[in-house]
Write a structure and sequence with these properties.
heterodimer; A: alpha+beta; BirA Bifunctional Protein, domain 2; seven-stranded mixed β-sheet; 41% helix; B: alpha+beta; Phenylalanyl-tRNA Synthetase, Chain B, domain 1; OB fold (Dihydrolipoamide Acetyltransferase, E2P); Phenylalanyl-tRNA Synthetase, Chain B, domain 3; 6 domains; five-stranded antiparallel β-sheet
């Protein structure tokens, strides 16, 4: 009897080796382990086995069944694996076929730079503020210490709506509005569109954007201005970038300074972009003129402050090497797509 | 402003190359734009033509031997008709470089060797004004007995560096040779030495014997100084004066006019010379012009004046524009015998306005606009008289006219050294401050912490402590400013809500593939007209710019649509197959009250065209953008006339009570007006409306525990019934159990009948607290059908 069980077992295991599809495997399983299977029929014929032998035969059969079942299961998973591989192989596609590209759009490059500037200054504790673009002469000029017929008005060729209303020539009127309505300490950056009566050409646009900063508090010094702008320069262009102050004149600041930043392209070594000077002129700045403070109702004996301003388009053109200012306002999609998408 | 180095060195010592000088001036606040050498040639000397024969092979060339002071004479072929033996000439030697970079080499001209070139004025870029003996008719013939071999640059005083300054608006005192020499002396630690001004009043009589001056407008003419010169001998100015004028970029005319220009350049005081015989009744009147009065200025142009313009007149009529330009009538001419010199101060505002209105800009008006110091006017006039004496071109009548009713009081400023240190952030000690101020000719006394400063009259910019602190800092050096951290309370930096909101909209649209545009805020009124708005629409009444660059930029836009259409049009014209662009910008609506600022209405515009653009793509964009803010706008057919009449929609929120905007396909006529031939789509959104309705993200509710049940129905209705209306009817009928309605099919066919359509919806129901029973759903469906029939005439499809 034992020999017969062994013969079934070995026979089945041998047969298993030759099976490669799940259907044949199932047939084998039924033929051996099924209700009428070869192994099952031994148990069925147990009645003819001597009673003392029955437990032993039972054990042989069960052991054989376990062995065969294991083997079948192994074979089954091997076959399933192979079949899945085959299916996946069949499902292969040409991944290089083109698709309809749904590109992402992008912000305007000028606004990308403006956002970067706002991130830097809000990170330094400045509050971002805005104001009207069509503005009273009073805020745009008078409170900035530029009275009517002052020669400084020539530097900012102005669009007039009437005698009292202008298109703002800088974002300084926002500062005036803040100074006349808030009490120090003040720490703001005003930003937005400004207008000058310049014909559009490679380096000019009658519409452009500025960002200006204003700090008013007790004991603010020119050193604090430099410290602030040094930090700004590093955050904008990286470590090693610093500022150079040159004396200048603005009616709303005294002392005034033009501020150069280390040329980011050559790190100060001198290149085409900085015309071999190692410096790029970026900002105008200075200590707020006490006359401006007084006109805005701030006690200039107690408080002092600094202000600075920069043109966003200029920084944008420097950063991305935009060759012509007019590119920024033409909105040719090929230009805009250059900035992603 | 241009100043020749040699002229500056008459009054101070600038003993360094121009480059280093420029750097030192720039770092102390005087912008130097550049420098240029007055000589544009080398190796040209005075030669003496010893023999001059006709060229054997030419009817106009000469073969000359020229003595140039060398070992042997040179043979030079010359084509000029005026060359002759015995002439002194400008001779370019072998190796000479002429203006334009031409190098002289020896060569053969029609077979005769030539070892140089005899030069004309234009060939050396020498203007008539600098050396009067040269014209275009031939080579220069030198009249003076000057040694052969002399370098022509030395002979003409060329070779000097001319510095070009950009003088800032606060330093009108530097618009003069004295001014920049004085500033240079301070910066370089040298002395500034004024010439000693003296002359003999060698004329006869007194001022009043010759002329009378009446100043009627003392506000606009705070000071008027005048002198009389008699026995005038008009002629060319001496070489040194011509050389200085040439360097400064001023044309030499004659000795009297040159003196006035020289004094203006040297002192900063514009002057004017009148031919006294042409001044009727020898009376000068400084007054406002009569309205409509006519005047022909020196440049031959006739102007019609207005009553706010200051003129110099005689008894009869205006003869010059005060401080701007003289009149033709009293011009100095060759037989002028007596001259009235004017040196006045005119108020800068009036001067600026007049010059602007008439479109005239002269060296004189430029200086008056920026401010001319009244105190030093007489000194400048005296300097002119001194030059008359020096040039021997006239006799100075004793006594001057001077009307200066309100001399400015001396400016005395007190300042605290400590406060200055706090302001500039640099630890300059008190004594150093005093030294710096003294070096600026600011009479300074230091007493403890207090500086008491008497400011020279010409420093009109110094008014208070802040100005003194700038003087101290710029001369101490801006490089000394330390980099410090602000003390005081920490402040939280932030963007405001509106800024963050705008950034959010843009980011959402960028994610949907849109590119941000930047268009000008001013447009042409014609572009608004092209939109075909109905009469009375506020957008047809934009804020007008009084002095626009051109019509295309002459009004503030009341709609973003024209700018968007222009941007789309540009892209189409450049053959870009598709574009999706957007912009956020205010539109400017006219103020309700006169004198108020226009209302700035922040607006979003979205535009698209191309293969992937249609009405519904645009609708998707709008719906998706609204979904970002938890909103689902109500969309109804309609909108402005610039849209396609059948493809436009109004967008509203809060049950139609808040107008959000509109969208659609642009009307082909309007598109055509913007040179667009295909279909383009735009949407306009009022940002304030979107922001005010935006829904905060609500608290999280538990996810549903009970299953949803879904039913499909197909309804038949008239073609004219919008799907949106049917969906609303379904929503209303379904009540609170409704979870979602989805349109999944639109069918039209003969079986339905004419002008009928069928819409098929999938409707799902769910209850938060139990599994729905069949009867609940049946009940809801019945209500839906009833409602649809009632409000839309829709019946279930058989």
């Amino acid at each position: 009897m034992q020999a017969k069980v062994l013969e079934i077992t070995n026979g089945t295991l041998n047969e298993l080796k030759g099976i490669s599809d799940s259907q044949a495997l199932e047939q084998l399983r039924v033929r051996v382990l099924g209700k009428k299977g070869e192994l099952t029929s031994i148990l069925r014929g147990m009645g003819q086995v001597a009673p003392e032998m029955r437990p032993m035969v039972g054990q042989w059969v069960n052991e054989a069944r376990a062995t065969i079942e294991n083997a079948i299961q192994e074979a089954q998973s091997a076959i399933a694996k192979k079949e899945k591989e085959k299916r996946l192989e069949k499902e292969a596609i040409d991944v290089t076929l083109p698709v309809n590209e749904r590109s992402a759009g992008s912000l305007h490059p000028m606004n990308m730079v403006l956002e970067e500037l706002l991130d830097i200054f809000t990170g330094m504790g400045f509050e971002a503020v805005e104001g009207p673009e069509v503005e009273y002469d009073h805020f745009n000029f008078e409170l900035m210490n530029i009275p009517k017929n002052h020669p400084a008005r020539d530097a900012q060729d102005t669009f007039y709506v009437d005698d009292n209303i202008v298109l703002r020539t800088h974002t300084s009127p926002v500062q005036a509005r803040i100074m006349t309505t808030r009490k120090p300490p003040i720490r703001i950056v005003s930003f937005g569109r400004v207008y000058r009566a310049d014909e559009a050409d490679a380096t000019h646009s009658p519409v452009f954007h500025q960002l200006e900063g204003l700090v008013i508090d007790e004991n603010i010094s020119m050193g604090d201005l430099k410290g602030t702008l040094d930090t700004f320069a590093r955050r904008l262009y990286g470590d090693g970038v610093t500022t150079r102050f040159r004396p200048s004149f603005f009616p709303f600041t005294e002392p005034s300074a033009e501020v150069d930043l280390t040329c980011a392209a050559c790190r100060g070594k001198g290149c085409r972009i900085c015309k071999d000077t190692g410096w790029i002129e970026v900002l105008g700045s200075g200590m707020v003129n006490p006359k401006v403070l007084e006109m805005c109702g701030i006690d200039s004996k107690k408080y002092s402050g600094f202000a600075f301003g920069m043109g966003v388009e200029r920084l944008c053109n420097l950063k991305y090497n935009v060759p012509d200012m007019r590119y920024l306002y033409e909105n040719d999609i090929r230009f805009l797509k250059h900035f992603r998408g | 402003m241009k100043a020749p180095m040699k002229w500056l060195n008459e009054y101070t010592k600038i003993n360094m190359p121009a480059e280093e000088y420029a750097k030192r001036m720039i770092m102390t606040g005087t912008a130097v734009e550049g420098w240029e050498n007055t000589s544009k040639f080398t190796n040209v000397v005075i030669g003496l033509v010893k023999t001059c024969e006709m060229h054997p092979d030419s009817d106009h060339l000469h073969v000359c031997t020229v003595d140039v002071g060398g070992e042997k004479d040179l043979q030079i072929v010359c084509g000029a008709p005026n060359v002759h033996a015995g002439a002194r000439v400008f001779c370019a030697l072998e190796g000479a470089v002429l203006p334009g970079g031409v190098t002289i080499k020896h060569g053969k001209i029609r077979g005769v060797e030539s070892f140089g070139m005899l030069c004309s004025g234009p060939e050396l870029d020498i203007p008539e004004g600098l050396y009067p003996h040269c014209g275009n008719e031939g080579i220069v013939l030198v009249k003076e007995d000057v040694a052969v071999g002399t370098d022509v640059r030395d002979f003409l005083g060329l070779g000097d560096d001319v510095i070009e300054y950009e003088i800032l608006a606060n330093r009108p005192d530097c618009l003069s040779v004295w001014g920049v020499a004085r500033e240079s002396a301070t910066v370089l630690g040298e002395h500034f030495v004024m010439p000693e001004i003296s002359f003999a009043e060698n004329g006869k009589g007194a001022f009043s014997d010759y002329a009378k001056v009446i100043v009627e407008d003392e506000v606009n003419c705070p000071r008027y100084c005048a002198r009389i010169i008699t026995n005038v001998k008009i002629g060319p100015s001496p070489k040194w004066m011509r050389e200085y004028l040439h360097g400064a970029g001023v044309r030499s005319i004659n000795n009297i006019v040159d003196i006035t220009n020289f004094v203006m350049l040297e002192t900063g005081h514009p002057m004017h010379a009148f031919d006294l015989s042409k001044v009727r009744e020898q009376t000068i009147v400084v007054r406002r012009a009569h309205e409509g009065e006519e005047l022909t200025t020196l440049d031959g142009k006739t102007h019609t004046l207005t009553s706010d313009m200051l003129v110099i007149a005689d008894k009869e009529k205006a003869t010059g524009l005060a401080g701007i330009m003289g009149g033709e009538e009293s011009e100095i001419v060759n037989d002028t015998a007596s001259v009235l010199f004017e040196c006045a101060a005119f108020e800068r505002g009036n001067n600026r306005v007049t010059a602007r209105k008439l479109g005239i800009r002269t060296e004189s008006s430029g200086r008056f606009e920026k401010g001319v110091c009244a105190e030093t006017a007489m000194q400048a006039l005296d300097r002119a008289c001194m030059l008359v004496e020096q040039l021997g071109c006239g006799e100075i009548v004793p006594g001057a006219f001077d009307n200066y009713p309100n001399p400015k009081p001396e400016r005395v400023i007190t300042a605290s050294c400590e406060r200055i240190r706090r302001r500039i952030g640099v630890k300059v000690d008190n004594e150093k401050m005093e030294d710096i101020l003294l070096s600026l000719n600011i009479d300074t006394e230091l007493n403890g912490d207090t500086l008491t400063c008497t400011v020279p009259a010409y420093r009109v910019d110094i008014e208070g402590e802040a100005d003194l602190s700038e003087e101290i800092l710029r001369l101490y050096g801006y490089d000394a400013i330390p980099s410090t951290l602000m003390s005081g309370e920490t402040m939280a930096g932030k963007r405001n809500e509106a800024q963050s909101f705008g950034a959010g909209i843009k980011n959402a649209l960028v994610g949907m593939g849109f590119f941000e545009a930047q268009t000008f805020s001013f447009i042409s009124p014609k572009w608004i007209e092209k939109l075909g708005l109905s009469e009375g629409d506020a957008r047809l009444n934009p804020v007008v710019i009084r002095n626009p660059l051109g019509e295309d930029t002459s009004v503030m836009r009341t709609s973003l649509v024209p700018s968007m259409l222009n941007a789309l049009s540009l892209n189409i014209s450049r053959g870009n197959p598709e574009a999706k662009i957007m912009e956020i910008s205010p539109v400017f609506m006219p103020a309700k009250n006169e004198g108020d600022l226009p209302e700035h209405v922040p607006t979003l515009i979205v535009g698209m065209y191309g293969e992937n653009a249609d009405f519904f793509k645009m609708k998707e964009v709008v719906m998706c953008l609204c979904a970002v803010y938890g909103l689902k706008p109500f969309v109804t057919a309609g909108g402005d006339g610039y849209f396609h009449p059948g493809r436009k929609a109004n967008l509203t929120l809060r049950g139609g009570s808040v107008k959000l905007g509109q969208m659609g396909e642009v009307h082909p006529d309007v598109a055509e007006a913007f040179d667009i031939s295909g279909r383009v789509y735009v949407a306009e959104i009022d940002i304030a409306a979107l922001k005010s309705c935006a829904v905060q993200i609500p608290a999280v509710k538990p996810l549903p525990k009970f299953p949803a049940v879904s039913r499909d129905i197909a309804l038949v209705m008239d073609e004219s019934v919008p799907a949106g209306q049917v969906m609303m009817a379904i929503e209303k009928g379904a009540g609170r159990l409704l979870e979602n309605v989805k349109l999944f099919d639109v069918y039209r066919g003969e079986r339905l009948g004419e002008n009928k359509k069928s819409l098929a919806f999938s409707i799902s129901f769910r209850s938060p607290d139990h599994t729905l029973t069949e009867s609940e759903i049946t009940g809801a469906m019945e209500k839906i059908l009833k409602n649809c029939e009632k409000s839309c005439g829709a019946v279930i499809r058989a």
